[in-house]
Amino acid sequence: MNLLQELQKDLTTEYEITKKFIERYPEEKNDWKPHPKSMPMIHLAIHVVEIFGWPDFMLKTEYLDFAENPYSPARISSKSELIAHLEKSYQAGAEALRNMSDSDFDKRWQLRHGGNVLSDWTIYEAIMQSFKQITHHRAQLGVYYRLNDIFVPGSYGPSADELEQMGQS
Fold first, then answer.
1. What does the alpha-carbon distance between residue 76 and residue 20 come to, in Å, rounded to a whole number?
2. How many CB atoms lie within 10 A of CB 36?
């Protein structure tokens, strides 16, 4: 098995699934959130989209320190901007993986908060964690959609909405 090819394939698969979600994004619900502790819908969608660029960031750095770089989502307010940001992030991540070599797998990458190391991974493990983050936050976005009666696309098989559309509910 070629790990680089598998990473490229996984990134593309997650991109194709996520694109279906972003194409249904309801920009009139940008500020909606299910709970006061939750992110507004637009911030969650931006976060999902930005994760596609993480392989590029990870291959150019040795760590991310949340104390030094608190997360601040891009300023986006429309579905068309969100789709363009997804394309840009995906292209950056895909390009990074195309330029990655087997020797990159030996590098380490960390998540930190101040002096505390939260996670210490190989580059491969770090990139795989980013893919898991895409899945996790896209699922959250699916819950936001469901709570607002917005069609939820399938991820790894048909969703209840797609089954209903096919007459198989």
1. 18
2. 5
Q: What is the pLDDT of residue 6?
A: 95
Encode pLDDT of 130-166 as tens digits. Answer: 999 999 999 999 999 999 999 999 999 999 999 999 8
Using CA atoms, how far residue 157 sits from 71, 89, 115, 160, 163, in Å, is 32, 25, 42, 10, 10
The two tokens of residue 19 are 């694109």
The pair of structure tokens assigned to 51 is: 């994760």
Q: CA 127, CA 105: separation in Å to the nearest integer?
A: 10
Grouping H, G, I as helix, E, B as strand and the rest as coil, residue 4 is helix
Neighbours of 112 (CB within 10 A): 18
Summarize the confidence of residues 88-104 as an average pLDDT: 96
Detail the DSSP E strand segments found in 18-96. Answer: 63-65
Q: For residues 30 and 40, what is the distance between their CA atoms, to the nearest angstrom?
A: 6
CB 109 within 8 A of CB 96: no
Q: Is 46 exposed, middle or buried (0-12, 13-18, 19+ CB in 10 A)?
A: buried
Q: What is the pLDDT of residues 33-89, one digit of tens each?
A: 999 999 999 999 999 999 999 999 999 999 999 999 888 889 999 999 999 999 999
pLDDT, residue 91, reads: 98
